[in-house]
Design goal:
With about 100 residues, the protein is mainly α. It contains 3 helices and 3 strands; from the N terminus they run αβααββ. It has 2 domains: about 45 residues; about 40 residues. The N and C termini lie far apart (about 90 Å).
Length: about 100
């Protein structure tokens, strides 16, 4: 291969690389515009106000009741599903949205 042929191949490869870069730059610009538009229309994900299961002392504070009342509620809840034992300790089920009977 002569030096002129080598140079022609190098110039062709350079033109291909520049065309590829232009395509990538257009794609990046499109993605940035889409992200900018959707950032204002996509609602922010929210975390629930409280976890589903709380130890009885934390549940008592959350509900504004005495810890013994929360303990009794969790013990009664073992049968109904509002209470459970984890590691030998009672927990009380509190849905993320308070129910009308809580507290």
């Amino acid at each position: 291969m002569t030096p002129a042929e080598q140079r022609a191949e190098m110039l062709a490869a350079l033109a291909d690389a520049e065309a590829f870069r232009d395509g990538v730059d257009r794609m990046i610009g499109t993605l940035r515009r889409v992200l900018a538009v959707t950032a204002t229309t996509t609602p922010v994900l929210t975390v629930p106000n409280r976890p589903e299961w709380l130890p009885i002392k934390a549940a008592a504070r959350e509900l504004g009741i005495e810890p013994m009342a929360a303990r009794r509620r969790a013990q009664r809840g073992l049968r109904t599903g509002r209470g459970r034992k984890v590691g030998g300790r009672l927990q009380l089920h509190l849905p993320s949205q308070p129910e009308t009977g809580d507290g």
